[in-house]
Amino acid sequence: MNKAPLVVTLYMQTQTLTGFIYHYETGFNYHYEERLSDLLNSVSLRRENGGGFVELRDVTIRHSDGEEERLATTYINKATIQLAATIDGDLAKGIGGKVGAKPYPFVEKLPVPVKVRMPAYILMGNMYCVSRQMAWHTIQEKPLFLPLTNVSMQRLGNSDWWKLPFAAVNREQMLSLAELEPSSST
What we know:
Elements: E1 3-11, E2 15-24, H1 36-40, E3 53-63, E4 68-77, E5 83-86, E6 109-117, E7 121-130, H2 135-139, E8 145-155, E9 161-170, E10 176-179
Antiparallel strand pairs: 1-2, 1-5, 2-3, 3-4, 5-9, 6-7, 6-10, 7-8, 8-9
């Protein structure tokens, strides 16, 4: 299996970290790319990924006071991450998502527009639920990080919104979640 660098931004209460997470991109006799949400949820090909920390390399840390610092490597406690995002625009199914037939045990999910309030951010985007499932069912499930696509994001106290194609949101950092009407999510 080969490790490949993946650029991510981790949004926390008082700082934003941008750097590289290394993920596996090839499986045994098939091509497999780890999804960011799987990596954060410790559902991974990597045996060493079961801990509560994420290794981030070549890191730029932007503090809320505007100060910036650089580190070669740092380890981030997953519980303190409000959301993790990528800049890759082709993430309709998350990192590693491929167009075409899906292997067993693929379960089709439908987009549900939601608004999520975090301690430092407001997010609007699509959460994916199994047919006839509501968003609140999804937040009751086990994974710590839930994937959202087509995200509009605002930092509290700032009127600017910006777009993210994909974000993995820490369920335990959510203050509230509301389902939106399909027309109000854009």
